[in-house]
Fold this sequence. Notes:
Elements: H1 9-21, H2 35-47, H3 58-73, H4 77-82, H5 84-92, H6 98-106, H7 110-124
Helix pairs in contact: 1-3, 3-7
Amino acid sequence: MLDRTNQDPARVKRIQSSLIAAGYDPGPLDGIIGPQTTAALKQFAVDQAIEAGGLFADDFTGAVLLYAEISATHPDAPQIIRSADFALWLDRQTHFQSRDIQRLKKSAAAQQIIEILDRYKSDKR
């Protein structure tokens, strides 16, 4: 089902741009939800192991936009976030409150994730 916010051509272009930034080919940046954009979203869902309630549901396309924003700052973010070492490092952080860690593990704004990845990378140097 197409979420109302994703019917806006400007948002569809942002989604298409985000897919390109994440390494997927949505076809031309035309703001139109066509077969290439749909195929790119499906592949993103498979690759990221996201169960999409609908490929154009606002929460799913929001995840695409978030992923691209984080990837632009930290191209290696997907590998870091999925690593056991990152999970252990995050659990050992004393400057985060435990409820914040749980919230960040579930979901967070791009800026929060970027800040945590910056801290992780600086600790690994």
